[in-house]
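Cross-posted from the bioinformatics board.
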Amino acid sequence: MVIILVHISDIARMAGVSSATVSRVINGTAKVSEEKTRRVEEAIHKTGFNPNEIARSLYKKSSRLIGYIVPSILNIFLSEVGRAIEDEAFRNGYKMILCNSDENPEKEAAYIKMLMGMNADGIIITANNENLDEEIRHCPIPVVVMDKNAGTHCTASVQSDNYTGGRIATEHLIECGCKKIVLMRGPQQYCSSKQRYLGYVDACRRHQIEPRFVNSRYSYDEGVESARELFRRYPDADGVLASTDLVAFALYKVIYEQKRRVPDDVMIVGYDDVGLSRLMIPTLTTVAQPIEEIGRLCVQLILEQTEYGTIQQRDNVLPVSVKIRETTKRKEGV
Amino acid sequence: MVIILVHISDIARMAGVSSATVSRVINGTAKVSEEKTRRVEEAIHKTGFNPNEIARSLYKKSSRLIGYIVPSILNIFLSEVGRAIEDEAFRNGYKMILCNSDENPEKEAAYIKMLMGMNADGIIITANNENLDEEIRHCPIPVVVMDKNAGTHCTASVQSDNYTGGRIATEHLIECGCKKIVLMRGPQQYCSSKQRYLGYVDACRRHQIEPRFVNSRYSYDEGVESARELFRRYPDADGVLASTDLVAFALYKVIYEQKRRVPDDVMIVGYDDVGLSRLMIPTLTTVAQPIEEIGRLCVQLILEQTEYGTIQQRDNVLPVSVKIRETTKRKEGV
DNA sequence: CTGAAAGCGCTTACAG
DNA sequence: CTGAAAGCGCTTACAG
């Protein structure tokens, strides 16, 4: 089957006008007489003409494409943010290119270069690359950094209030009556983890509780290791703050192995509030990041920069809250 | 900060050659003298020149972009396939545009139109849209349909062997000694679900077991409903085939509520083998779809069609296998 | 081996 | 209001 592509010149010929006029009708960029408008619209309708975006992009220097660069979409939190970004992009006529970097700086650089070459309108990136700021120094398109502070060369940053997250999670456990609270502390080179740690420590201090922690990365398997270490070092722990919901899930496994009861022996608070946390058994109390809003704001910032050439607020910190579910419960007599 | 974009003409001037020669050096499309090649490469290196892909696309009518249209990336299986697609695309210098359709035909159509307008090189779609085939009839770019049979107008299809999946899952439960096996049957308008059902029924017949089923959609919440109905209708069920791993997870919840023991009272087999199935407690026996391979093949088919204008095998059915974990166990004396 | 020229399919000053 | 022309930044016949 041969499919004949129709171009703007075909429409022009059919409607007896110039290509310029057709373009004006399509984009509404200038007044066109009613009669010609009608003829153009008819021709477009009849042929199913779909303007070539690439040609338009070349002239406009904008492809209405946004790159989302993350370690991996297999990380549920990043996947949920990606969904939110894609939604907001779609609403505004943009498309999202998904880029999994595996935290590999070369892959990140390759993607940034690709996106630049494509006249992407913006990049949303979450990376732990030391050189990222240098990397995007010569990037002519807006770069929004997610989940960390804005470097010198990026356009803006969006993150949630990790300090408060760490603090209120701890306070919640304290209110529930926990005395031996242990933090599964995420990698301290991530400023999100560092902030949560600080929030945790401050809450402990304020309530005269001794801070304890084990280091924990964000993957499930490493979560299992950390959880084992946790109960080795703190066998009497009665409250645990997991670094993510997935790590909390890993913690469940160890708790199950050790036949500890939740929440009676140990209470648990996760972090992120991904969809999964509501499904776990027992359902997981967790610190909810405003995932929808994070995604929406990242896109909005890019549109703002593209449209006005500047941005109202460069560093954006979104509020978090504790979603109380079955893994925490106020103890009798507290 | 002003970023000066360098163009091919700048390189040409710096190297004292024509743009054509620069292009030839970059693309290796023709012999260029050593001396000029050196000068061009030097200029490119010095300026960090990054060719404008949009301009190239316009001429080449290929943007090296592949669209992945799915109901939602929040579906873990689709997210994992997406990761595999993106990997394979990256390896070949392609980028993936992620499109969540929410099973909304209008969104699907909008995305297909967008992708056509962008000279995308291919579309990978999984949809249950009756009119999809008509939709892509006038689509000049290759369309690979995932998880269902190829319609008349699509380029190719990729799916795993759902009939066998249903059959071997059932046989596994039978071998484990289950007598009252219930299928949580996915929507029968999906041919994948239908095939699994047929495989289940055939396995039952062959072993003189009566087929039983409850209808179940693919979401967690609907899974919970179906699981409740299941034990209402078949309180003595000793083996359950869940329609997906996520539905199996929903089943866990109901089983937990009803204090049934797994695998002693009920054995469970999931479907898909998403990462989550290995993390569940107990770990889930499931029918593994070759996720990596599905993604890779979808991309390969598009490249094949793009490169050769034809495809070796239009309908592709990939093998499945049972991954045995803790939810099934051979009963004593079987 | 190499350059001038045409062309990819649009959009927008410019002139009327 | 409208069209002819130039231009977006590349690539590739074409001619030498």
